[in-house]
Amino acid sequence: MPQKPPREIRPFLEKSPLIETQDPKIRALAREVVGRQGIGLGEVEAIYDWVRDNIEYRNGKLKGAAAALRTANGDCEELTSLFIALLSRQRVPARTVWVPGHCYPEFLLQDKEARATGSPARPRHARFRQHAGPPPDPAEGR
User: Fold this and answer.
1) Interior angle at CA 117, CA 114 and CA 119, nearest 5
2) pTM of the model
3) Quick one: which of 54, 52, 33, 29 has its CA closest to 43?
4) Which one, of 131, 127, 142, lies nearest residue 42 by Cα?
5) Distance (Å, rounded) from C-alpha 84 to C-alpha 20?
6) Domains recognised in the chain with CATH numbers
7) What is the pLDDT at residue 22?
8) What are the tens digits of pLDDT across the range 83-116?
9) What is the 3-state secondary structure (H, E, C) of the chain?
10) How far apart (Å, rounded) are the C-alpha atoms in residues 65 and 84?
11) What is the rounded CA–CA span in Å between residue 13 and residue 57?
12) Would you say 105 and 96 are in contact if contact means Cβ atoms under 8 Å apart?
């Protein structure tokens, strides 16, 4: 993402309930997983893989990203919240997409080669659905 993201993207970088981007452990983990070299699709995949490999899927009460990291478990809401919090620490806009009985993260990644968006379709099984081209309009809700 550019240093100053476009106005329409900024809401997806702001604080959100239960996506505790300022939590010291989340901040440290984002640096550990990605480092300081910048972020591309490979780094987004590294964050996704870390969440998938280190947070056990377990149904329970809604508790948020910091609690999921602390307890090393959570359901789709916590996996999504932690993934989004880690992306947000790297200035990658992301949001939660809610569907009946489930949620998943969606993010916008713009790199030097092309604009690409992606979202893990299921927290435990899928890779990213990607496409190159202009980013979707956030107002359209896609």
Assistant:
1) 150
2) 0.78
3) 33
4) 127
5) 9
6) 18-140 (3.10.620.30)
7) 93
8) 999 999 988 888 898 889 889 888 887 656 545 5
9) CCCCCCCCCHHHHCCECCECCCCHHHHHHHHHHHCCCCCCHHHHHHHHHHHHHHCEECCCCCCCHHHHHHHCEECHHHHHHHHHHHHHHCCCCEEEEEECCEEEEEEEEECCCCEEEEEECCCCCCCEEEEECCCCCHHHCC
10) 9
11) 26
12) yes
If one counts every other C-beta atom within 10 angstroms of the C-beta of residue 54, the result is 14
Closest C-alpha to 85, from 24, 35, 9, 5: 24
Structure tokens at 133: 């081209």
Of 120 and 35, more confident: 35
Residue 132 has pLDDT above 80, yes or no: no
For 33-58, the pLDDT digits (tens) are 987 767 777 888 899 999 999 999 99
CA dist 61 and 114 (Å) reads: 39
What pLDDT is recorded for position 112? 60
